[in-house]
């Protein structure tokens, strides 16, 4: 099997960052899922308090298996909550629900980065697995234009990862503001909620770093092979 050790040199730092971010998410969630919020509100309670006054009456709430699987689906206007978040009156539950409602607000306010991200999702899903195949075939057969086509398609994934950053940071910003506005969390609770959301945001930064590192590796391979020939 063909493996290039240079790939690890390019990707190593990004992989370390991803590993660190995952650890931070797990530890922040584990910590703040044990800290009960003062008003003893579950994620479901918080969602019910926030949605109506924010004009999000068309958003429905649905349960979801797994841990940290919570998300808002703009296509179906569904707020999908994991059991841990929906049923536990913790600081972590408040943080995660508020963040997801932040996405629902972005959707209802036609927040441009969210719309852009949604628009390129289908293309990214295809390019995500087609691009590396095209690149590898093109590179190994010396068909440079085919390999470059792979690079261009792969770059779409980088655009997606880049657009994801404002979407996620803005959702957390909106979420923390919601927790304040509806007096769901006080100072220490807000700091805890921010710690959970900041850790989650770091995973998206790591995802962008991985995509850019891979893209740079592809470009380096191609420009290097051209110089040799
Ligand atoms: Zn999010």
Quick summary:
The chain has 229 residues and is mainly α. It has helices spanning 5-32, 43-51, 83-87, 91-108, 112-141, 144-181, 187-228, and strands at residues 60-64, 71-73, 78-82.
Give the key terms:
about 230 residues, three-stranded mixed beta sheet, 3 strands, about 5% strand, binds zinc ion
What can you see in these coordinates?
With 229 residues, the protein is mostly helical. The chain has one domain (5-228). The protein contains seven helices and three strands, in the order ααβββααααα. It has a three-stranded mixed beta sheet. Strand 2 and strand 3 (78-82) form a beta hairpin. The longest helix is centred in the last third of the chain and has 42 residues, at 187-228. The protein is elongated, with a radius of gyration of 21 Å. The model has no long low-confidence stretch (mean pLDDT 94). The structure holds zinc ion (ZN). The site of zinc ion has 4 residues, from helix 4 and helix 6.
Oligomer: single chain
Straight-line distance between termini: 24 Å
Question: How would you characterize the largest beta sheet?
Answer: 3 strands, mixed
Structural class: mainly alpha
Sheet with most strands: strand arrangement: 1-3-2
Strand content: 5-15%
Report the uncertain regions. Answer: none
Average pLDDT rating: 94
């Amino acid at each position: 099997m063909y493996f290039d050790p240079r790939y690890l040199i390019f990707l190593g730092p990004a992989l370390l960052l991803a590993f660190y971010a995952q650890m931070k998410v797990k530890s922040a969630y584990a910590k703040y899922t044990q800290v009960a919020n003062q008003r003893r509100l579950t994620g479901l309670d918080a969602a019910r308090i926030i949605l109506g006054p924010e004009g999000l009456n068309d958003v429905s709430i649905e349960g979801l298996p797994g841990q940290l699987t919570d998300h808002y689906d703009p296509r179906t206007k569904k707020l999908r909550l994991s059991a841990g978040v929906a049923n536990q009156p913790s600081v972590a539950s408040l943080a995660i629900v508020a963040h997801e409602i932040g996405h629902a607000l972005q959707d209802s306010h036609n927040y441009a980065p969210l719309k852009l991200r949604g628009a390129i999702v289908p293309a990214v899903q295809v390019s995500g697995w087609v691009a590396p195949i095209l690149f590898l075939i093109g590179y190994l057969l010396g068909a440079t234009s085919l390999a470059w086509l792979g690079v261009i398609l792969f770059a779409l994934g980088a655009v997606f990862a880049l657009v994801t950053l404002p979407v996620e940071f803005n959702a957390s910003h909106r979420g923390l503001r919601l927790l304040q506005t509806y007096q769901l969390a006080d100072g220490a609770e807000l700091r805890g909620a921010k710690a959970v959301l900041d850790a989650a945001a770091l995973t998206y930064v790591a995802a962008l770093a991985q995509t850019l590192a891979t893209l740079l590796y592809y470009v380096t391979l191609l420009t290097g092979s051209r110089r040799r020939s």
